[in-house]
Design goal:
The protein is mainly alpha-helical and about 525 residues long. The protein has 25 helices and six strands. The chain is globular. It is a multi-pass membrane protein.
């Protein structure tokens, strides 16, 4: 039976990949197709799904910092949006009931509020997948979206406590002991090395935290998230996250399949779910309004709102609990399952073209910006910049330091990870915070004296987007980039990048040249 799931997931995932859509759309389709063909899910699928979500939340924690959650634009927009959205949907449902739609006509005020609350959450699984594929987890809008998802998780814990009546045990206060135990956890992570013990240590931490929180009556997934946050400042946090990435992605396939097994719809249910899907536009508008009202830039507000404009798998949990309590009819579970699936498809398709949409409508979007942006959204112009390295990961930082040694202080570095930038600035490096795909950034920077820009970004699509924006702002200097595969190199050369270094080939060439020096 497990092979049947893998077969359908592979065929459907590959089919949508061939038409340039995210594979998760195929996995969703595979689940509904298996359900239609009357295959039965087993506990194994649920276990894979739960493990994937737990590992995902642990990985989110590894990239988050507590101070991000305390920012006003995170907590205020989360709570404000959830309240406004719930009130809006109560009004919409009442209006639809008045025009004669029976499913909405029979809803009580409490039922409408519960459904609205369930649909106010955004999908952690869908958004994290999109941000990871785009390499935008540490960008300004990426961190904003992650912060809001975490705040929504906190609200979810409060709701589950109130809805189920399960109050955490008195032993839950001992969970605060994890804070002083952080150095011990860090030493364990150090001793795990770089091989197979590293991902095993991450899985042990994530599942161990889940079980620990669950034992004391707290949502287990929250435990995985919190332990990840505690380890976020560790020097191996990034390496640990990368080692868990493939495991997490494989397990999450079980989650997407399980949504399709939730129920088989009727045509009436499909129609109702389409109505809910259309309301995603209102969800986007509300997020955009709150973001711009809190002085975020238009681009950050647009991309953040677009990423968050979907429905969450947690909404299904809320409705399932409401069905068990007799507050909502069972058909709403099917309707919401379809709406969640449709929202995944909508977000996956539109977000992949988000940067193109912003470039096209940037003047209209900027019209809603606050004239006084937040301090961290103000651009910094490095002095005497003639060479710019975009992306300061392992390869980018190596290039930046080598160029600095060769030509001096005319080299500047830029990265979208503000914590990396703060660390390098403390070491007195000539670096500044910026997102290479931010058209606002390139329009504000003075590139008249810049002769060479190096793109050390993880995605070839990112490099192509950056060079398009550079050329559109009138930059005529040289652009170089790195690629991992030959087909990526060919696409980047066609996009107008002057020189593309094949990462593996050039590493071998450099190794050979350095080794030959021993003979001399």
């Amino acid at each position: 039976m497990e092979f049947i799931w893998i077969l359908f997931a592979f065929l459907c995932g590959l089919a949508v990949k061939l038409i340039n859509l995210p594979p998760l759309i195929g996995f969703l389709g595979a689940g509904f197709l298996l359900n239609f063909l009357q295959f039965e899910p087993s506990s194994v699928l649920d276990s894979l799904s739960n493990m994937g979500i737990t590992l995902m939340l642990f990985c989110i924690g590894l990239k988050l910092h507590v101070q991000d959650l305390l920012k006003r634009e995170v907590w205020a927009s989360t709570l404000g949006h959830m309240g406004a959205w719930t009130i809006l949907l109560i009004g919409v449902f009442s209006l639809l009931g008045l025009v004669g739609l029976h499913a909405f006509e029979v809803l009580s005020l409490r039922t409408a509020a519960l459904i609205g609350f369930a649909l106010s959450f955004s999908s952690t699984v869908c958004i994290v997948k999109l941000l990871e594929e785009a390499g935008e987890m540490k960008t300004r809008h990426g961190q904003l979206a992650l912060g809001i998802l975490v705040m929504q998780d906190i609200v979810a814990v409060v709701f589950l406590v109130l809805a189920t009546g399960k109050i955490p045990s008195l032993w839950a206060v001992l969970l605060f002991a994890l804070i002083p135990l952080r150095p011990v956890l860090g030493r364990i992570l150090d001793k795990s090395g770089h091989g197979e013990m590293l991902p095993l240590t991450g899985i042990f931490f994530a599942l161990g935290a889940y079980e620990l929180f669950y034992l004391v009556g707290v949502k287990g997934d929250l435990g995985a998230l919190i332990l990840g946050i505690l380890l976020a400042s560790h020097s191996k946090a990034s390496e640990l996250n990368k080692s868990l990435m493939n495991f997490k992605d494989i397990f999450l396939i079980g989650f997407f399949l399980s949504i399709g097994f939730s129920a088989l719809p009727t045509w009436e249910m499909v129609g109702l779910s389409v109505i809910l899907t259309i309301l995603l536009l209102a969800k986007f508008v509300l997020f955009f309004y709150f973001f711009t009202s809190l002085r975020l830039r238009g681009r950050t507000s647009f991309l953040g709102a677009l990423a968050l404009s979907n429905y969450s798998e947690f909404g299904l949990i809320v409705v399932a609990l409401s069905v068990q309590a007799g507050w909502i009819s069972n058909e709403w579970l099917v309707i919401l399952a379809l709406a969640v699936s449709f929202s995944f498809v909508i977000t996956s398709v539109f977000y992949r073209k988000a940067h193109s949409y912003f470039r096209r409508y940037k003047d209209r979007i900027r019209h809603y910006e606050n004239p006084l942006p937040l301090p961290e959204d103000c651009f910094t112009q490095p002095k005497s910049m003639e060479v710019l390295v975009v992306g300061l990961g392992r390869v980018g930082r190596g290039a930046f330091e080598s160029l600095t040694n060769m030509v001096g202080g005319v080299v500047a570095g830029m990265d979208a990870d503000k914590f990396r930038i703060k660390q390098m600035q403390a070491e007195e490096h000539n670096v500044f915070f910026g997102d290479g795909e931010d058209v606002d950034l390139w329009e504000h920077l003075d590139l008249s004296n810049v002769k060479l820009i190096l793109l050390a970004l993880p995605s070839s699509d990112d490099c192509v987007n950056v060079v398009k924006q550079l050329r559109s702002t009138g930059y005529n200097g040289q652009v170089a980039a790195i690629a991992r595969y030959q087909d990526e190199r060919d696409d980047m050369m066609k996009a107008g990048i002057n020189n593309v270094f094949n990462f593996y080939t050039e590493a071998g060439t450099g190794f050979a040249e350095e080794s030959l020096s021993l003979l001399r």
